[in-house]
Amino acid sequence: MNGGYQFDFSAVLARYPLFFEAALLTLEILAIATVASLVIGLFAGIGLTSERWYVRGPVRAYVDLFRLTPLLVQIVTIFFLLPIVGITVNALVSGIIALSLNYAAFYAEIFKAGITSIDRGQWEASRAMGMKDSTALRRVILPQAIRRMLPPVGNMLVSLTKDTSLVSVIGVAELMSVSQTLGASTFRNLESLLVVTVFYLAINIPLSALVSYLHKKQVVNA
Amino acid sequence: MPEVTVPLGRKSGLPAGEHYEIELRDLHKSYGDNEVLKGIDLDIALGEVVVILGPSGSGKSTMLRCINMLETPTSGEIRVRGQVVDSRPANLMALRREVGMVFQQFNLFPNMTVLENVAAGPRYVRGMSRADSEARAQQLLTRVGIVGKDDVRPTRLSGGQQQRVAIARALALEPRVVLFDEPTSALDPELRGEVLDTMKSLASQGTTMAVVTHEMSFARHVASRVIFIDGGVIVEEGDPAQVLERPKSARLRQFLNKLEWEND
Ligand SMILES: Nc1ncnc2c1ncn2[C@@H]1O[C@H](COP(=O)(O)OP(=O)(O)OP(=O)(O)O)[C@@H](O)[C@H]1O
Ligand SMILES: [Mg+2]
């Protein structure tokens, strides 16, 4: 009972190099956006823990703006907004910027939660020996916080792999975009989608296994 | 600030031109409407061991934490070796290098080994090299009797060992004064002795110490002065024999009776 649909992957698979190229681009987006969002998220997360309202306020506004609106809307808006404010970049860079800003907002919350989960006594012991807060953060607080953050960060990585597909709307030739183009030209949309599904799984199954491993390790060491 | 007044319990004056290690003048601290410290005057001279007693909530920890500015006093003055302390960061860091602190809960850094914990101050505060700071840390660990545990995480040690590591860590910056806030209260009774012995040996080497504790034998045999705080003021102070054996105030008598009763 397949509704009469005859699967035929031959036309799609004949163009397999295109999928690999697209997969590489997806991985590139994933890697750059991960690094950029973690760096921005670290500083934004520290900003969220600031006792000074004029630091915390603007950071909070940024985080909420990106956390509480749809990523797809952000991707398209940033794509049209950047040239207007005088920044001319291609769709790929624009997409990476949008993904990075969005994920950084979530990482900021994760960093904030990690930092504030560390016992007050750790800050007090650091301050009592004359450490600057920045030194205490770097040498004492963050090393402990980051351990606790690894599982949620891993989950975000898995999620980002999937969300890279959204930049197809601004014409970046990553996996999703290529599957649509190929599907249209071969009239084999479904086959094309199933092939990219395999590619996404190939990226995310190892990532997800890593997350489970980190979870287990954390439980064991707790 | 008003004229400096001579405190009650000082046994002997200072030689001319010398400063007290610590001077507190009319120190007040409030949390909202709750005034916890209501005007504390206290001098601690070089080599003194001052034991601070008082009921729960009387402000002992708050006073101790004001000395190294973990709490910012609402008003009053703190001097360390004659130098007025304020909350400007540079001044604060300088103060804290002079004043070490040992906490009830140890507060060792679990992301570092025992050796790294003790080396952290010299390394990250003084900017000493890794090798030098660890060599110093090793000496200090030997001094507090923690040997062969350099590369162990502090959480693997017994409470008594952890507190001795914390004492070594507090000494690593060669502070002029070490503050202890109930250093044995989180420990099982059988582990308290080793920590008290370590503190006793520091005292005998001339370390200036301010110790909040309920350990009566430490107060009796090690303290050069005992202070009784209640309701945010110093109610009585003097040498241990006088304060502990012949308390003047009803409040202190009551407190000592209760302690004795609890310890039996
Ligand atoms: N950060 C804070 N915010 C608000 N109130 C506080 C704070 N720290 C202490 N207090 C209050 O100040 C009072 C004195 O506290 P403190 O810890 O100095 O007492 P203590 O003498 O050390 O008592 P204990 O023997 O229980 O340790 C208590 O009533 C406490 O509730
Ligand atoms: Mg206390």
Summarize the structure in words.
The complex is a heterodimer of chains A (222) and B (264). By secondary structure, chain A is mostly helical. Chain A has one domain: MetI-like fold. Helices cover 80% and strands 0% of the residues of chain A. The longest helix of chain A is centred in the N-terminal third of the chain and has 33 residues. The termini of chain A are far apart. The model of chain A has no long low-confidence stretch (mean pLDDT 94). Chain B contains 9 helices and 10 strands. Chain B starts with 21 loop residues before the first strand and ends with a helix. Helix content of chain B is 38%, strand content 23%. The N terminus of chain B is likely disordered. In chain B, helix 3 crosses helix 4, helix 3 runs parallel beside helix 5 and helix 5 packs parallel to helix 6. With 264 residues, chain B is α/β, with parallel strands linked by helices. Chain B has a single domain, classed as 3-Layer(aba) Sandwich (Rossmann fold), CATH 3.40.50. Chains A and B meet through helix 6 and helix 7 of A and helix 2, strand 6 and helix 3 of B. The structure holds adenosine-5'-triphosphate (ATP) and magnesium ion. Magnesium ion binds next to helix 1 of chain B. Chain A: This is Nickel transporter. Chain A: GO terms for molecular function: transmembrane transporter activity. Chain A: Pfam families: BPD_transp_1.
